[in-house]
Amino acid sequence: MTRLLLLSVSAGAGHVRAAEALHAAARSRPGIEVRHLDVMDFVPAAFRTLYTDLYIKLVEHSPTTWSMLYRIMDRTPPSAPLARLRRAVERLNTRALRKAIGDFAPDAVVCTHFLPAELLMRERARSRLRAPVSVVVTDFDLHGLWVVPHMAGYFAASDEVAFRMQARGIEASRVHVTGIPIMPAFGEALERAACAAEFDIDPERRAVLLMGGGAGLGGLDEVAAHLLSIEADFQLVALAGRNAKMLERLRALAMRHPGRLVAQGFTDKVERLMTACDLVVTKPGGLTTSECLALGRPMIVHAPIPGQEERNCDYLLERGAALKAVDATALDYRLRRLFEEPRTLAALAGRARTLGRPHAARDVLDRVL
């Protein structure tokens, strides 16, 4: 029996979802015992608040500050005093995690966030961990924090990310282009009418899916209200994720627009929800956009988080899989254009599908195992 350990960090939803996708893919393989641990479940509350809640507050309320920090951390070398201090603080707050890893005694480890990769780099250097450790980058960009030395494998979302890995000194033999791991369900053949019926969506009418990430960020209710003011025949499905307050506001808005707005909270059937819709309006997170690409769903991207989501946005625009809306007026214009030009919508969908990697989780496991 091979013991596979997956480590993620719940700073945003994408890192955890990538690990869950690998977990789901590994469960279908014989002879594999797989365990997924969220690093934030093993740290003191104060550290967790600083690491996750502060990040969400920064990107929501002070994106300019986050943009500055993103650039500074990207340029800071690992040997710099600030970087060494950061790693020391992380080590002091993750003793329980190191014990949990030792108790499981994995044969292989895959990290979907740089924090556990950095911690295990030190454990391997001191011969306290013998299992090979790999890292999966969960955006279409490479930030300096992800360049953790001495990993057994580095998994990239695209050829360009792989090129950047090698440019930063990672051996080409350890770099693999697999795409970002998403749930195996995104690789299945789905029937639109059946998926639409599950969510009370009319499959004969155009449907637009509005997403704001796992935390429900991005002023979804305001964006939804604006979209509903557009004079066009379409249904709007707004996905609030785990944001209960946002879901409540969306449901109130739906009551004022009967038959036009479907307010949806967290669901583990996103692939079926996407299949039921013609177009996705979303923040360009790495996991969400990978899911759209796998299903060939065209996107209008908006409100990217400075840094990683801006780079994801660039990737989609350069390859013709999405349009970008810089404000509400642009969103109005883009949506009207796509409704009036079905060939443009179809072209976006076709290019999205060519970029999709629905079996990324399987491909990562093939290398790791």
Plain-language structure description:
With 369 residues, this protein is of the alpha/beta class. It has two domains: 2-184 and 358-368, Glycogen Phosphorylase B (Rossmann fold, 3-Layer(aba) Sandwich); 190-355, Rossmann fold, CATH 3.40.50. The chain is 49% helix and 15% strand. It is built from 16 helices and twelve strands. It has helices at residues 14-27, 45-61, 63-75, 81-92, 95-104, 114-125, 159-167, 192-198, 220-228, 244-256, 270-275, 286-295, 308-318, 328-340, 342-355, 360-368, and strands at 2-8, 32-38, 108-111, 133-136, 153-156, 175-177, 207-211, 235-239, 261-264, 279-282, 299-302, 322-325. A six-stranded parallel beta sheet has the order 2-1-3-4-5-6, sandwiched between helices. Strands 9-8-7-10-11-12 form a six-stranded parallel beta sheet, with helices on both faces. Strand 5 (153-156), helix 7 (159-167) and strand 6 (175-177) form a beta-alpha-beta unit. Helix 1 packs across helix 16 (360-368), helix 2 crosses helix 3 (63-75) and helix 9 (220-228) runs parallel beside helix 10 (244-256). The model has no long low-confidence stretch (mean pLDDT 89).
Present the secondary structure layout.
Blueprint: E1 2-8, H1 14-27, E2 32-38, H2 45-61, H3 63-75, H4 81-92, H5 95-104, E3 108-111, H6 114-125, E4 133-136, E5 153-156, H7 159-167, E6 175-177, H8 192-198, E7 207-211, H9 220-228, E8 235-239, H10 244-256, E9 261-264, H11 270-275, E10 279-282, H12 286-295, E11 299-302, H13 308-318, E12 322-325, H14 328-340, H15 342-355, H16 360-368
Helix pairs in contact: 1-16, 2-3, 9-10, 12-15, 14-15
